[in-house]
UniProtKB/TrEMBL annotation:
Matching PANTHER family: LOW-AFFINITY PHOSPHATE TRANSPORTER PHO91 (PTHR10283:SF92), SOLUTE CARRIER FAMILY 13 MEMBER (PTHR10283)
Gene Ontology CC terms: plasma membrane
Name of the protein: Sodium/sulfate symporter
Organism listed in the record: Desulfovibrio ferrophilus
Pfam families, sorted: Na_sulph_symp (PF00939)
Membrane topology: Multi-pass membrane protein
Principal subcellular localization: membrane
Keyword Transmembrane helix: yes
GO biological process: phosphate ion transport; polyphosphate metabolic process
Amino acid sequence: MAQAKSEKKATGYDKYVNWKLFIIPVILFAAILVMPTPDGMKRVGTQYSVGPKIVVDFICNELFQQNSSDVEQWQMVTAQMMERNMRMGALTQDRFLKRNAKWCKKYKIQASSTNVDRAKEFVKSTMSPEQFNSIMKASFDLRIKKLKYDELKGSDKKSADKGAWHIKVAIAMVVFVVFCFMTECIPLPGVAFCIGLILVFTGVVTRKQVAMYYWSDACWFIMGSLMFAAAFVKTGVDKRMCMMMFKKLAVPNVRWITLIFFLIITPLAAFISDHALAAMFLPIGMLLYQNSLTDEIPEDKELAKMLMIAIAMACNIGGPGAPSGGARNVIMMTYLTDMFGFDIGYFQWVTYCFPFIIIMIPITWIAVNTLFKPRIKSLAPAMQHLEAEIGKMGKWNRNQIWAVIIFVVMVWGWFTEKIFYNMGIYPVRLGIGVIAVAGAVAYLLAGVVNWRDYHEKVDWGVVWLYAGAIIFGRTLDSTGAAYYLADSVVSFLAPFGMDHGLPLMLTSNGLTAVLTNLMADGPAAAAVGPICLNMAGIVHPGTTFLPFMAMSTAVASSFAYCLIIGTPPNAIVYASGYLEPKDYLRVGVPMWFIANIVIILVTAVYWSWRGFGALPGF
């Protein structure tokens, strides 16, 4: 009876629009759009919309003594590949020579394998690494420093104005979306649809583009993971997994249960997808809560929130531990290598960054147990109830065995699909989202579930919510709005002495940590990384500050604690129906500040004491 009472969907979905609140973000959005366009927006709009064309033309004149309109196809491919590398911070000849036709296709450079090979041969045979690097740096200076909005004319000026308009829309959208998420003045899946509508109505994307953006691989993963969680719950596999994890506890107190979550999930998140870990542990957390309720306490919202938040936070703090913990880590490693020639090895990264997550585990565990005050302290009744239910189940049945087999195959696919694709074993790149949905379909084919199970037990609002988050983050990245915000903050703080040493690192970390709550961690690191690494290279050239800046920026991009859209684990646990947006802020805001302080202390104490290779300290 108590369990039946506890099964309720997210109350936010039952609300209607609160116009007294909703009118505020609407007015703010409109006010930003009608305000005069700042010079900074025009400058970044010029760099993003006109810069690529100007740089390609510059490279063609440098290499082939012709304008881009007059060169041969392979020569155009050469210039376009160099321009794209320049935008990514990959300024070395070695990095250019590793590109191939697949890379060109990914970045929408029309090039056959023959033309790519010819371009690489030309660069290798006619230029030394120093000459290549010189042209790339000149291209970078042209785009960032010499390209002026006021000097543009005709179509170039129109393109720059359009680029500045896109940035303004993106900034206005940030204000609109964050306000809506924090106040729930409109149902959250509705905000996800508003994002797409805003971008189409303002001309930032086309109607075809917006449809493609919504259904990304990450969105497919969220959908597939919630589907296999539903299969686990229906078959009772979640009960068996829960007992395997917690039956050895002498005192199954909620504090020790959450500690086990942190001790198991957090280290694994450094090596395994945090998406997968959140999806694996969500049904376990829900099961523990539902079986802890009694006739005396038929509902304990604080306990439910505590268990769900513990799973999400355990996933979030583990990512920096190893390069495989997220794309952000690899992005910053690549930037450091390409821009300054410093390499951080896999094991070396682990020895620097794992201490951070070791420190964060007890701090985050204490914070979660302090900020949430459940009435139910002991989960012993839940464990006894589970044991009785499993006893009734008897031995593993057919559906349970199939549920585990399909799940193991999915996890294997998540671990190996990228490696096997690079080795040529898989002819196409599958992606974790396609594998997750394939697993959900496999459950249907095996008779483990029917569609009614997915229809009723999957929170489809969360799927659309994260789909909106994907397009939101992509827009901040592609329009240059994220770069504009990062550059504006760094430029503003420079006169206050925040442009060198630990203050610069604190600025970079804080800025990255803000952006990563609004967009994916990879784009956040990609937006802030080049700016701060370049500043670090100017004020602390050839010192330990450079690799420290790269690692700290990657770590800070994992601080997506505050918003549902900040990271997939946040969105996945929101599907439980027990959380509200303010619950993320409740624990996320203090942990955001604590995490920024911890990484600075780790840098100042442990990293500085240890040093980095033969580099002098800063």
